[in-house]
Structures are given as C-alpha cells and as structure tokens.
Amino acid sequence: MDDHFATFTMSSREVHRLRRLFEPYELLAGRAIYQLDGAGMPQQHELPAKNTLHSATYAKKAGMSLPPPANDQSYWEVSAIDAGHVHMLLSQLVDTAKEGEMVDLPVLSFVLRHSRTGEVILFDLGIRPDTEAYTGARALADTMNITFQGRDIPTALERGGVPRANVKHVVISHIHFDHAGHPRAFPNAQFIIGGVARKVIEEQGPDYPGTFYSIDVPSERVLYLRPEEPTGRGWAPLGPFPHALDFFGDGSLYVVDAPGHVPGHICVMARTSADGAWVCLAGDGAHDWRHLTGEAGIGHNPVCMHLDLSSALENIARLKAVRDIPRVRVLLAHDVPFVQEGKGYWPEKIASL
C-alpha cells in the first residue's frame, strides 16, 4: 500500500473515549435529518446477525443487464480529481480492522464531459481548501481525532482547460462535508441533490451544528430529486437499481437513488463509450472495496457510518451486482485502489472497459 494510505494505531483508551463522544452526535444527527423528512429514526447500531454483502438477490433476476446503446449513442469522458483526504479510524469502515487502527482515505471528485456537446458536469466537490469554513464538522472532528485536508477543485479544473464558469451541472452525492465542497465557486452550475436532504439544507443552514453535514449551496440553483416526486421525466429501474432518472433524456447519464448512507444519497451511472461501456460513480455507497469483494463487512466501531444500515447493505449488493455486469467500472469516492494505480486524473481520461 502507498505510504499516503498507511494505517496508524490509536490506543484502546482513545477508541473508547471517541465512542462515548461520537454516539450522541451521530444519533442526534440521524434523528434530526430523518425526522425532518417525516421518517423514523434509523437503528444504526443494530447490525444484522451476519454482516455480509451479497448480490445474489439481484444477480439472479432474469435478464439483469443495462440498456443497449442507441445508434450514434452519446457518452461521457470521465476523469478524477484529487479532492482531499481524511484521516480516521479504520474500524468505522470495515469490521476486520484492528483495535485503534487508523487510515488516510483519499477523497475523489469526478469530471464528466459529454461526447457530443462538450458539456462539463462534476460529481461531488470534495473538501474545500479553506477547511476553517467547516465550523460544525471541524468541531466534531477535533473531538474524534479526525483530520482532513481539502483541495482547490475549481483551480484544478481550470488548469485542465475548463473554466469554472463552464460547469453547468454538479451532482452532489450527499451533504457530508467531504463531498459537498464549495458550491458557490461554480457561478453557473445547477446543483443536483437527493430530495430527502432538502429540509436540512433549507431549514438548518449551511453548516449543520454538531455533525458532518455541511453545504452552502445557492438555493435558487438547486434541483432536488427523489423518486416520490414528479420531475416531468420519470424514474425507472436501471439494472439492479430500482430508481434511476435519465437526466439528459439521451440515455447517456442516470441519477440513481442509492439510500442507506445518509438521507438523500445518490450516485451516477454514465455511459463511457458509444458501444456499451459504463461507469458507476458510487459516492459513499461503499467506503471500501472490501465491502464489494466480500472480504469485510461494514465497520461499526465506534459507530456505523451508515445511518440506515439495512438499506446500505441492499445498496452495496446492488453495487456489486452492477459491477458484475460486463463493461461496467465502479468507482468509489474513497477509492484507494484507483488512487494507487494513479491513472485517469484530470485532464487524463479514465479508460473505458
């Protein structure tokens, strides 16, 4: 493993101290965001008897596939941007971690450019470089020995030849600080956000206190999407995913409802060639590739990172199922193997399968 992603050890006493500190914050955060949406409080600490991740339920469905390309099919060229890193307890991510073991996680944003129009969209904005702006997240992180560092995404984009003013859409997988970035740095973008997060953003302000929710987004430029609400286009199944929206209407890019991690979590399925290749930008649907390979279950020490664990497990099973479809590349927001390979960074393109 690259030195940047080396693991470290925290004492047992420190782990227990963090567990006591962390539980009240996350329970309150989960209760607040779910109650704002009129839903019940998730039982995030009740793990299944066997915390394993299988795709059999979805893979066995007859005809599990993705729609074939149309004649002269549009697609997207995809690149990654280094969007920061987070230093945290590994046991919050995987159940095979040693007591006190810590890890540096990469944070990725993705640039997508339309093959026909040249339109540029972004998936996630990572961690903004002026991390002092994260007052709520910073206060909680300081009590938990979590550290993080941001990156200047607009400048990185412009160095690759795309002015920030040219970005027309930004898909934000969810409103955790390490994904929401600095939306106001993109003056002409519309922001695509999962609809369940709307009340938290609108009623609680840009930096939700005592939690890792943090987003300062121009309200007049937000499109909230959720399957239960009419959009004029309609949601439909896509491969193993029950709810996906053909966002541009040309079959090239789908916004996918991907619940479990936090309310409003979404991902993107995009074509990466005219002849049938795809990428799944999974966000925090899985925090570690071992969740998809079955080498580890979801961690829960001091707490589980997913507020609705049963839905998270179902979503991970769907991610594994879509990964098993030929010519589909799955990329995680904290994708250590991808970062270690070191290919496909903006303005270089991620190769299609």
TrEMBL record:
Keywords: Hydrolase, Metal-binding, Zinc. This is Metallo-hydrolase/oxidoreductase. Its cofactor is Zn(2+). It holds the Pfam family Lactamase_B. The keyword Repressor does not apply. InterPro entries: MBL_superfamily_lactonases, Metallo-B-lactamas, RibonucZ/Hydroxyglut_hydro. The keyword Ion transport does not apply. Belongs to the metallo-beta-lactamase superfamily. GO terms for molecular function: hydrolase activity; metal ion binding. SMART domains: Lactamase_B. It comes from the Eukaryota. Residues 106-334 form the Metallo-beta-lactamase domain.
